[in-house]
Amino acid sequence: MANKGFPSFGMTQAGAFVASLKNYNLPDLILKLIAKDCESSLLERGRIDDRLLSMNDKSLELLHKVFVDCAEDTKGKYAQYRFYAYVSSMYHKCELVINEIIPGKSGKNHKIPVAVKSNGMYIAIAFKKATGHPVNKKDVIKFYQTCDDVKNGEHGTQIIDGIYGSSVGFRGDALVELENLSKSRNQDPEQKLEFKTANFENRIYSVTKC
After folding, report:
1. 96-181-174 Cα angle (round to 5)
2. In what order do the strands lie in the sheet with 194-201?
3. Which of the four pLDDT bands, split at 50, 70 and 90, describes residue 209?
4. Which of 174, 99, 166 is nearest to 129 (CA)?
5. What is the pTM assigned to this prediction?
6. Which residues contact 167 (CB under 8 A, 6 or more apart)?
7. pLDDT digits (tens, 9 = 90+) for 99-115
8. Which are the contacts of 54, defined by CB distance < 8 A and separation ≥ 6?
């Protein structure tokens, strides 16, 4: 099962990893990203346990670290993987694309960490702070302005959600600022945009409130 050049845990440990990982709602995007990072093969489709068994030991170990152990790394990459899975769980049967360039009404091209598409149209965009200090007012103002600009651009007409995830928490004044900005928006249904914030704590993402 293991690819040549990678350490082998033997079927016992690989089997244990698969047994625990198959209970997690691992989206296709995550499996593909991990397989690419670990130079692993991956079954294109099939049952989740069969797809996991098609991956090499390095991939299984990384998936286990990220989703079962909820380990952290200095670059915040593990937190990014968990955020992708969280966003995916909110939009079933939708396509997730990462680091998507979407032009706003201003003409500026925005690099969006996670965009959600349904029937080829963007319906949500998501941002993540994985390391450093808690999200502050400056961070949420930039987030709001980016979401607003993309929403008002020609590719954002169907966007309904702007999501901000954090692994380092949110300052109280930042949440209040985002709520005030949200309330100040034009109430026209075509301009409607829901702003959602979620903090990763105690191994799960939970929606934060002011």
Report:
1. 80
2. 95-103, 109-118, 121-129, 161-166, 194-201, 204-207
3. low
4. 166
5. 0.82
6. 72, 76, 79, 128, 129, 130, 131, 199, 200
7. 999 999 999 999 999 99
8. 41, 42, 43
pLDDT tens per residue, range 165-201:
999 999 999 999 999 999 988 777 778 899 999 988 8
CB 22 within 8 A of CB 49: yes
Distance (Å, rounded) from C-alpha 100 to C-alpha 184?
28
